[in-house]
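About this split. The held-out portion is used to measure sequence recovery: a designer receives only the structure tokens and must propose an amino acid at every position. Recovery is the fraction of positions where the proposal matches the reference. Here is one held-out target exactly as it appears in the evaluation file.
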């Protein structure tokens, strides 16, 4: 299987990493040290401080993976001097520089067999940084900046194809039931299909979406953050089989952690 192309271009995705990283750093600079132990809403085991450590680590590991062409063994990194903000900023800067060196369509080792290009890492890091920027701002208790609709739509697409359609299988998880839930935002529609032994994502038209057992709809940001477990059911509109939607929610949680 070859992955469908992202819904936005690779240059835009690279810009998003930088923009979202700066928003994350700006919030963290204002919130630390007082809010270091504040919990991330929707992720009770994750704190603001823990989120920053995670982002700094993932940016460094990704840069190393792209540079060396192979998966690093150790994913957790720690700031050697205790400067958490500096740790995140240096990781972001080095990642951006590494990604810029490569044509996004050129071959590259990744953890998704359907996309073995440098573009995979631009997209993955754009959404990694965006979701955790939202986490940091929510934990800090201040305003949460909006997500541009085109990025949110691409994020829904990534959640369904990469995490639901691939990651669940890698975790050895399969659905005990059959069914389909449609997701709808702006003019985009998707189907998340459960089958015994596998999960499948498809881009569909409106008529195909209406054939699903249930539909989750809303503005792009709401559906995106709902898919990542950052917003509750009340943030989106749900029609049809509530159990099918609850099942989708349940299987997405381990896939996206």
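Reference sequence for scoring:
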């Amino acid at each position: 299987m070859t992955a469908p192309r992202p819904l936005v271009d690779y240059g835009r995705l690279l810009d998003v990493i930088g923009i979202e990283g700066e928003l994350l750093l700006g919030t963290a600079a204002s919130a630390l040290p007082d809010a270091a132990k504040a919990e991330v809403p929707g992720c009770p085991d994750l704190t603001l401080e823990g989120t920053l450590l995670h982002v700094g680590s993932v940016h460094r590991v990704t840069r190393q993976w792209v540079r060396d062409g192979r998966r690093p063994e150790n994913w957790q990194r720690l700031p050697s001097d205790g400067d958490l903000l500096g740790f995140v900023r240096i990781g972001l800067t080095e990642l951006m520089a590494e990604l810029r060196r490569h044509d996004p369509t050129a071959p590259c080792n990744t953890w998704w067999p359907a996309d073995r290009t440098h573009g995979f890492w631009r997209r993955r890091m754009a959404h990694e940084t965006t979701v955790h920027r939202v986490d940091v701002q929510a934990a800090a208790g201040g305003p949460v900046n909006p997500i541009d609709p085109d990025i949110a739509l691409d994020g829904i697409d990534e959640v369904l194809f990469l995490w639901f359609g691939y990651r669940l299988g890698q975790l050895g998880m399969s659905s005990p039931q059959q069914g389909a839930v449609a997701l709808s935002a702006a003019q985009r529609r998707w189907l998340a299909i459960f089958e015994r032994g596998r999960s499948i994502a498809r881009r569909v038209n409106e008529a195909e979406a209406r054939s699903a057992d249930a539909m989750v709809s809303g503005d792009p940001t709401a559906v995106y953050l709902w898919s990542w477990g950052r917003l509750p059911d009340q943030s989106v509109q749900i029609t049809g089989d509530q159990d099918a939607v609850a099942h989708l929610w349940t299987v997405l949680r381990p896939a996206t952690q």
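Annotator remark: The mean pLDDT is 93.
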